[in-house]
Amino acid sequence: MFFLAIKKSFFDAWDNLGAVLLGNITIMLLLAAGFWPMFKLFEAENSWGWVFLFFVIPLVFIIAGVVSSLLSSIADFRRPAWSDIPKLFKSTWAASLFLCLVAAVFFAISGFGILYYSSLKNMIGLAATAVLFWLAVAAYLTAIWYFPVRNRLTGGIVKSLKKSMLIMLDNIGISLFTGFIMIPVQLVLWTFTAFGGFGPAGILLYLDVVLRLLMFKYDWLEEHPEAKRNEVPWAELLIDEKDRIGKRTLKGMIFPWKE
Fold first, then answer.
1. Residue 147, CB half-sphere, CA atoms under 13 Å: how many?
2. CB atoms within 10 A of CB 197
3. What is the reported pLDDT for 209?
């Protein structure tokens, strides 16, 4: 399932490069428009730089929610409809702001807590630092599932966060792989593609593809409540997905009219 998710997300991004480029460029421009004047103000020792941070970060979360919802249709083998962007904005902005608020509060408390307890230089401080560190890791791995869960599962804003945590806990391996390998790799590759390919949009598409594939497992477990999770017949469940993706060659991807 790991390799199929990587393969499908790459092919989906290649076939819909315009949507990925638009998502990446939009996020990049927002970051540049906010952080450039912020750093300039900080260099001038002007505290107004924080104002840009408070506006830009929530706006990036909102745009990421819209981009994730738009790219979700690509993961389902459908073309994104640009006319749906206003509707997607209305349906995602509140959830995106909620995630931004929760993430900001949690990581601020964790960050200050880790700095404080690590400065104690005793066993209690070391234990508290370790607990806060792993809680921060768990929160990060939970947060990465939030947008895909909102796209694919029912429930309100808070319920989506709870489901994201359950997805993370039930899929520790792929959560760690995504959070500490796929996301950093995509961000590095983003710079090598002049901030066009891979990047935030590629990450959001990959996460939606992974959750789409994971839903086959949960549908099967719902039909077979007596079965154990290590008995999930992945090869059988993903046959149709593999057939729909098909076999690709580098020549066929670059020059599809020659095949």
1. 30
2. 19
3. 97
Check pLDDT > 70 for residue 142. Answer: yes
Q: Which phi and psi (to 5°) does residue 79 adopt?
A: -80, 140
Task: Look up residue 81 and give its two tokens.
Answer: 């409809």
Alpha-carbon distance 168 to 141, whole Å? 6
Angle between helices 85-120 and 157-170 (to 10 degrees): 60
- pLDDT band at 82; cut points 50, 70, 90: confident
Type of residue at 248: R
- How many angstroms separate the CA atoms of 37 and 53, rounded? 10
Distance of alpha carbon 21 from its chain centroid, rounded? Answer: 16
The size of the chain, in residues, is: 259
DSSP per-residue codes, 153-183:
S-S-HHHHHHHHHHHHHHTHHHHHHIIIIIH
Burial 3-23 (b: 16+ CB within 10 A, else e): ebbeebbbebbebbeebbbbb
Inter-helix orientation angle 123-143/85-120, to 10°? 170
Integer angstrom CA distances of residue 15 from 5, 93, 119, 258: 15, 27, 51, 16
